[in-house]
Amino acid sequence: MAHPAESPAVEHQGQSSNPFAVGLDRSTANFRPLTPLHFLKRSAAVYPQKPAVIQGERMHSYAEFYARCRRFASALVRRGIGKGDTVSVIAPNVAALLEAHFAVPMAGAVLNALNYRLDAKALAFCLEHGESKLLLADREFSETVAAALDLLDKPPPVIDIDDPELAGTGKLLGETEYEAFLASGDPGFEWHGPDDEWDALCLLYTSGTTGDPKGVVYHHRGAFLSALGNALMFSFRPETVYLWTLPMFHCSGWSHSWGVTALGGTHVCLRRVDPVEIFATIAREGVTHMVGAPIVLNMLVHAPDAVKQRFDHRVDIATGGASPPSTVIAAMEAMNFRVTHLYGATETYGPAAICAWQPQWDALDLDLRAEKMARQGVAFPTVDEMIVGNPETSAPIPQDGTTMGEIMIRGNTVMKGYLKNSAATAATLKDGWYRSGDLAVWHPDGYVEIKDRSKDIIISGGENISSLEVEEALYKHPAVLEAAVVARPDEKWGETPCAFVTLKPGAGEVSSKDIISFCRDNLARYKVPKTVVFGPLPRTSTGKIQKFELRRFAKSL
Questions:
Q1: Looking at residue 11, what is its pLDDT?
Q2: Residue 515 maps to which CATH number?
Q3: What domain range includes position 147?
């Protein structure tokens, strides 16, 4: 018999008696860093001959898709690119950008998918701020890319994406072409996942309330969970045929780049969001899922009758931003589309909430169903928590459907932070929450509904526009004394910038066309105001411009 002093019960007297804290250690057998990269490896093993990527007449099986990504990663490593290096890509929804979502992090580097709608100045800022070591550029955007590179003291080397669909368009800027670059790599490259699931995976620039974009950093764990959350909420399966109408540069395509791959679905790449191409591709490829901002739904609804088709199979289409009106929902349903409303931000890897459909809503008439669908909904199961909180205290507000508060989110699918911007990170990740800046009410059934935005962001065609950036451009006009910009509702784009301008005394004749033309010379085209209103600006007693009054006026126009 053991001496009492030597018995385990006596030995641990006064210490933790939790048996699960002893002898149950982490090892490579039972704990591995989460990463979405393994989704491709698995699908290539399970579905090697299944179509993985379709672009026009070209198709790659999962085995080929995986081999191409490994070649890509190998070619990057042979150039000396590795952990902590940024690889930028400016391209539409083509296979090369989808491959980059796997290949760049396979090399240990960070993917920076750029908004191809940016002007040269903003593009140059992103490349310099992100310290890009290599830029893959689609020749369609060669003019803007060349102008951006000219603004940099040390521009990154360029690899050209020379899409056969663009014969005679743009020009080649780089040292080699993408397919030749891939050919220099090893299809059997032995890649390794991250050492830590907190390692950076992607860098995505988003417009803020200040002029320069902010660099949102994603980690591997967040991307893994976001991909599975989206796959679950949007009902992906091996039979899924996903049409890329959502820009892949936008929140890494809402993580669908990885989520569709996780289930072994088929990616169908589409260079342009064109109703003719969308309807034809859905019919030809048997598309089951797609995503579009409200403008995309409007384009489909208002396409010529000769273009429209009603499909024998149902097409699930998700949308974010402003909820589509009941007339659009009815028209989409008539063509056998089922609309799902999602909510999120670049800072939350895209969608973090869904207007989860309740069976009893099926019996409602169209207007009431649209009213339900207008809600931003409830958190994804992969989100730890979402509340509507008091902006001052972060305490939850009453779920009464009338009290206004700020949407706050926390969990593993919230960004690491803003690159090189600790002040903005601290202000946005505050009191243990991601502070969205979106003002909402919380209904008794737990569903959240946005009522306004505290950030003066305009969402046009699914893209964020900083009102302050547009105002800054307006103030550069020699005849402008004061300027304020708010969102004006727009049937096509969801919202467009509406500029309120006070002219300087003695400015002479200045028309809306003059202001718009000036802005076109100083801003990306999608940021240019579509409406200009002249006159004095409403102010508070302390002199602050009352933007809520301007929003009210803009809505009445």
A1: 46
A2: 3.30.300.30
A3: 51-193
